Amino acid sequence: MKPKNLFKGILALFLLLFAAVGCERDLTVDCSDAEFSVLNGDDTPVTTRQTLNFNTSASLKLQARNIASTEASVPEGWGCEVDIPKRAVTVTAPDGAYKDAALDGDIVITAKGVNGSLVRVTVPVEAVDAEVVLKCTDDLAEPVSLAYGESAELTFDARNVERIDMSDLPAGWKAVRDGFVLTITAPAADDDTAAEEGEIELTPYSRRGSKGASVIIKVAVAEAPIVLTCNEDIGDVIPFRLSDKKVFTFTASQNVVDVNVSDAPKGWTLKPDLEKLSLEISVPDQAPADLAAEGSIVLTPISNRGTEGDPVTIRVQVSITAPVLEFDVTSQYFGLGEMVTIHVAKAINVADVGLKSAPEGWTAVPDFGSQTCALTAPATVSGAASSGKFVFTATSASQETQEVEVEVKFNGLHDAGDFVKFGDAVAAGASIDDFLLGGEVNLFADADLSQAGRDVIVGAAGKPFSGIFNGNGHTITLRIAASGADAGLFHTLGAGAVVRELKLAGTITSSASDANVGGVAVYNDGAELNGIASSVAFTYNASVNGGYYGGLVAYTRQSGAKYIDCHTTGAVVTKGIKYLGGLLGAVAPDTEGTMTDCSNAGSIVLNYGALGMGGGHAAGCVGNTEKSKWTFTRVSNSGNIDYNFGKTNGAIYSIGGAFGMACGKFEECFNTGNVVDTDGADAVAGTRRIGGFAGASASGGYPIRAFSCYNTGKVVGISNYVGGFMGIAEGSKPALNAPNEFTDCYNAGDVLVVSNTTISGMFGGFLAVSYQCSNLTRCSNRGKVLGFTNRSAGGLIGAGADQLVIDQCENTGMVYIGCTVASNPKAGRPFVAGLVAIRGTNPVTIRNSKNTGAVTAMVQAAADVASAYVSEIVTVDGKPDVTVCDDATKTASAGATVTAILKDNWNSNIPGL
Questions:
Q1: Which top-rank group of organisms is this from (predicted)?
Q2: Among 404, 466, 611, 749, which residue carries the largest CB count within 10 Å?
């Protein structure tokens, strides 16, 4: 066959196959003329106009045979889709919003047969708008009746509604439409221009713009109840004596704008105060001849519409023979043993006066011949009432009686008002003699200062409190939302001041930059705090590396300060603060002071995020004692410390369970709270000194000396230095005979150092690192030491150097150290030991010590891990060992299991994690 004829044959075959699709899938060859018609639902041909609503479609039937293709011509805005396989024609009316769309016309469908024949079918169409309907689902037969200021919701059903126009509202009324819900609000009661009734018309429109029937909503103000109520009990007749004056107060409904007051009984006086809704009723000192013995006062409320409400009636009665006794004082403050003479200011119909009762320990000697009475306070507070009332009984010739009270109080603080006045006096540098009792300022009752509205309650900068404050076991409640930097109960406690036997509760919040916040005081310049218990919670919302916070005192600035039997339990949540402690933020360098039998049990959450906290210190008890010479005895923390740096390498100088930077003497101090990096396995290593008892001691000439101290809290983190007892001990000065000393101390908390992102530096069960002269005597680690490093780790000390002496010390905790190839450790690293991994060329002395804990480490050579010690100068530098280790230590440590996992077998599995 010729190529030209071959092409014709293939084309004919293609046309036959294509025709099969349009010819009822009949694969027999049929090349007759095209057949095409559009049918109604009853299979009759479409001849009449098809009427559709805007934005709707209609489906017509299709009959077709031998069709190769179709094409439709439509009026403007219309649509037509021909589906031969489904035997359907879909006609779509225009969008009602399309103003140029044809309202009617013809859709012409041209069908082309497989043989080239043509068939044209015409479908007449017309677009009409559907009925526009808006109907309220609520009954509108009656007006919507609302009290002044009251609101009501109306809900509507709608069909073919695109928008709703609302008429102007009656004066003073409000209406807000949200979809098909209309909220109507009646005018305010004090709106004199408001309409009391009216109509709101809603007119619906379709998308095409067709208008539907309007909905008319009638509205009216309902007369709300007109109510006037007396706040005092007036159910019975109110008794009066000559010269009596009594004030009655009232509560009125919102629509009451006036009150009519009836005339007073003859001889009585009325003083109404509409603004305050009060009425003063009084009778004269002397009874005129026409004085009404009884009567009624009627108060009638009037609404803003002029309607009267139910009246309120006060029935009154006066006795002209009853005794009337008044003193020149009704309240008096006293010093210890002080006597004050009070005088009779008024006496009417009084034949006799007797003393009915007196506060415990107080005395009264009346001399009514001279119209006086001598009141005497107790000589001591012990066993006496701090406040109370003398009650006197006056008797008339008619044997009628009257009780007269005189309130008496010791000088001091009896309520929040007294406390604020005391605080103002200190802040002003004024005398506080009026608050002194036996040389002390006494708190005689619990005081709620949550409404004080000030950052500091007592004193101000440069205006310290230097006296003695005795809380007598009472509680002060604080609610301080600080606007300034300084916040706390006292601003400054001066040298020699004492605050004792006080409880604190409440909250302090601050967002101030470089905030200085202390529960008891912002600053202590040499005062004593004794017997303090605080549950004040603190929240700091600023990401600022500055300022001080202490549950007791933010910053102790001078020597001589003492803290005795003080305890905090308030939770702390912070994004910043440079020096932070559950008890003290910091003590100043080169100061001396003492803290004895004090504790923190409050949790601490340090949400540092990406904030750099370089130079910062945080701890459960005291944040920073750098270069100080304080003595801490039986000071402890049991609150958990959770910290995070937002999965960044943010730095902080130290975080410790009990102490951050620890210089000074520590006796029988301990931590039981966990110290945990809450970034978990996503934590990123940074320069941080983390420890269960303390974070660091690193001040030249100001060593740490710890005796019988311990940690049992878990320590979790990843940084240069992580230790179960302390992160790093360094900076001591051998030339000054000032080594760091640890005697009879131990760690029992597990140390976990793991991250999926980075690898840690040095860590150990007792110390992570000891540089520059430390002496350990009878110290031990019992906790597990688990983690990854490319440096060194140890059951007792992770890295020891520089005249370190280990005497009679022990590790019993399991040590399991991993390493990763990705961390690229130097040859000879990591190096790991049950007691100490040794760095540097200065000799380390180990005697009478032992390791019995199993030691497993991923190392590069078997010699890089040992039971007692490993020296870096041997494993890394290949130099001779200069360590001084006695045979007793080597022998006692020989039985421990030591396992080296060499580089080919390194893995990510550490048991116990």
A1: Bacteria
A2: 749
| C-beta of residue 55 within 8 angstroms of C-beta of residue 93 | yes
Specify the CATH number of the domain 228-319. Answer: 2.60.40.10
Assigned token pair, 135: 């109907």
Specify the CATH superfamily of domain 15-128.
Immunoglobulins (2.60.40.10)
Cα separation, 455 vs 367, whole angstroms: 49
Instruction: Report the pLDDT averaged over residues 314-330.
Output: 97
Q: Residue 439 CB: number of other CB atoms within 10 A?
A: 8
Average pLDDT of the residues in 492-520: 97
Residue 357 to residue 363: CA distance in whole angstroms:
9
Location of structure tokens 């990591």: 830
Q: Provide the pLDDT for residue 41.
A: 87
Residue 584 belongs to what H/E stretch?
Answer: strand 584-587
Residues 764, 787: Cα–Cα separation, whole Å: 10
pLDDT at 421 over 50: yes
* CA atoms within 13 A of residue 492's CA, in its CB half-sphere: 14
Sheet holding 387-395, edge to edge: 331-334, 401-410, 387-395, 352-357
Strand 181-185, strand 151-159: pairing: antiparallel
State the CATH architecture for 324-410: Sandwich (2.60)
pLDDT for the residue 737: 66
pLDDT at 734 over 70: no
Q: For residue 109, give the nearest of 118, 96, 97 by alpha carbon.
A: 118
Tokens for 30, please give them.
Answer: 């049929």
Task: Indicate the pTM of the whole model.
Answer: 0.73
Longest dimension (CA), the chain: 155
For residue 778, give Cα distances in angstroms to 689, 693, 740, 755, 828: 24, 17, 14, 33, 30
Regarding the domain delimited by 133-221, which CATH topology (the fold level of the hierarchy) does it fall under?
A: Immunoglobulin-like (2.60.40)
- In this structure, what DSSP letter does residue 828 have? T
Per-residue model confidence as pLDDT tens digits over 156-175: 999 999 899 999 999 999 99
- Give residues with Cβ within 8 angstroms of 861, minimum separation 6: 828, 875, 900, 902
Handedness of CA 289, 293, 294, 299 (dihedral sign): positive
Fold match flag (133-221 vs 228-319): yes
Residue 13 has pLDDT above 70, yes or no: no
**Cα–Cα–Cα angle for 128, 51, 84, rounded to 5 degrees:** 130
- Residue 734: strand, helix, or coil: helix
**Of 634, 630, 636, which is closest to residue 594 (Cα–Cα)?**
630
Per-residue pLDDT at 67 exceeds 80:
yes
Distance in angstroms (rounded) separating the CA atoms of residues 675 and 726: 12
Which of 235, 191, 46 lies closest to 122, judged by CA? 46
Residue 684 CB neighbour total at 10 angstroms: 18
- Residue of 636, 631, 675 lying closest to 658 (CA atoms): 636
Residue 90 or 737, more confident: 90
In tens, the pLDDT along 16-54 reads 444 444 434 444 446 789 999 999 989 999 989 999 999
The residue ranges of every structural domain in the chain are 15-128, 133-221, 228-319, 324-410
Q: By the 8 A CB rule, do 704 and 746 touch? A: no
Which helix (H) or strand (E) covers residue 891, if one does?
A: helix 887-893
The per-residue pLDDT for 26 is 42
Residue 695's φ and ψ, nearest 5 degrees, are: -80, -45
**HEC-encoded secondary structure of 313-361:** EEEEEEECCCCEEEECCCEEEECCCCEEEEEEEEEECCCEEEEEECCCC
What gap in Å lies between CA 845 and CA 250, rounded to an integer?
87
What would the 3-class secondary structure string for 401-447 be? EEEEEEEEEECCECCHHHHHHHHHHHHHCCCCHHHEECCEEEECCCE
